[in-house]
Write a structure and sequence with these properties.
The chain is an all-beta fold. The protein has strands spanning about 15, 20-25, 30-35, 45, 50-55, 65, 75-80, 85-90, 95-100, 105, 115, 130, 135-140, 145, 150, 155-170, 175-185, 185-195, 200-215, 220-230, 235, 245-250.
Length: about 250
């Protein structure tokens, strides 16, 4: 049986290092300070220089650092920076993954997100099969998950996709035009156009849609257009008329 014996602190006991400098103090309020002679809180660790003030390490040398600014080479960390009006930052793999600034705004520079567009017409779409839309220009591609007209999900989650495309020279002899977001899990219809209801060919038609899609890690997504019947004369426009974007929501 273990008996606990209370200790009364009539002064401020301390532990000194090899150079006879105070290393740890415990004051009369039972506040503990490391690297500081007087702790205002129950537990305070202070570093005499900027950078990491605490490190948790396991037996494989994986670390979680705590500090006031991000440290170099840290596998992970939580930091507070008093400059620039103050912000909290979370680091993963040596890179800042999330920041909470003094206004409460949260930014996540590594969050998967992309926006792409076209810089030329995709002319005379074939009929009778789904044609993948070609995207030549990346406006941005956080986490580098977009390539070869395809978005690849880096992690399992829910992804929000938004698309707008202008189709030119719609053939009134076609039975229908169907636009899809095609993912590895399922296909989502974005637009269905029946041009037979018009007296002649349409000069243009704008396709717009938003989809919240469930994707597993390494699933892919493309935008496709299917024209049933008619003549291969329809073009996908470019520039501000046509764009596709996506972001990991949760």
């Amino acid at each position: 049986m273990t008996t606990k014996v209370p200790i009364e602190l009539s002064s401020t006991p301390s532990i000194v290092d090899g150079g006879n400098a105070t290393a740890i103090t415990i004051d009369s309020s039972e506040n503990v300070g490391i690297g500081i002679t007087s702790s205002l809180e129950k537990f305070t660790v202070s570093n005499s220089s900027s950078g990491i003030v605490g490190r948790f390490t396991n037996n494989t040398n994986q670390t979680l650092d705590l500090g006031v600014v991000s440290g170099s080479g840290a596998a992970g960390g939580v930091y507070y920076n008093s400059a620039n009006s103050g912000y909290h930052a979370f680091q993963v793999g040596g890179s800042e993954a999330m920041r909470l600034d003094s206004t409460g705004a949260v930014t996540k520079p590594l969050q998967p997100a992309f926006s792409v567009t076209r810089d030329a017409y995709q002319s005379n779409l074939a009929t009778g099969s789904a044609v993948a839309v070609v995207w030549q220009t990346e406006i941005f591609d956080q986490n580098s998950d977009f390539a070869s007209d395809t978005f690849t999900a880096p992690v399992t989650g829910k992804y929000q996709f938004n698309v707008a495309m202008r189709l030119n020279a719609i053939d009134s002899a076609a039975a229908y035009y169907q636009t899809h977001l095609q993912t590895s899990n399922r296909n989502y219809e974005i637009d269905l156009l029946d041009p037979t209801e018009f007296n002649g060919d349409l000069q243009f038609h704008t396709v717009k849609g938003s989809i919240l899609a469930d994707m597993d890690a390494n699933d892919t997504a493309i935008i496709s257009i299917y024209q049933s019947g008619g003549t291969a004369q329809t073009d996908v426009s470019y520039s501000e008329d046509t764009h596709w974007s996506g972001v990991l929501v949760c």
